[in-house]
Design brief:
mainly alpha; 0% strand; 2 helices
């Protein structure tokens, strides 16, 4: 239990300290995009939309990859356990 707290303390601390500056950026991005769109430039808005989609998809891809490898490993462990039981009888 103590080891788990040790490994989770630093990521939790980093997450808590990064929330406040991240929330302040939303108004700045919106103002920049509105200013550029009113001047006829849409490149920054398109880049911002791509960045939002990129950040939206990455956690799902990461969870899918971890889940796939977890599934493969559990299948291999179950097969090895079944083989052990079969040899024992």
């Amino acid at each position: 239990m103590n080891k788990m707290i040790k490994y989770l303390a630093l990521p939790c601390l980093m997450l808590l300290t990064s929330i406040i500056p991240a929330a302040a950026q939303c108004a700045m991005c919106r103002a920049t995009v509105e200013n550029n769109v009113s001047n006829g430039e849409i490149g920054i808005g398109a880049g911002l939309n791509f960045g939002i989609l990129y950040l939206f998809v990455m956690p799902y891809i990461l969870i899918s990859v971890v889940g796939y490898f977890w599934y493969k490993r559990s299948k291999a462990n179950a097969k090895a356990e079944a083989n052990k039981r079969h040899v024992a009888f």
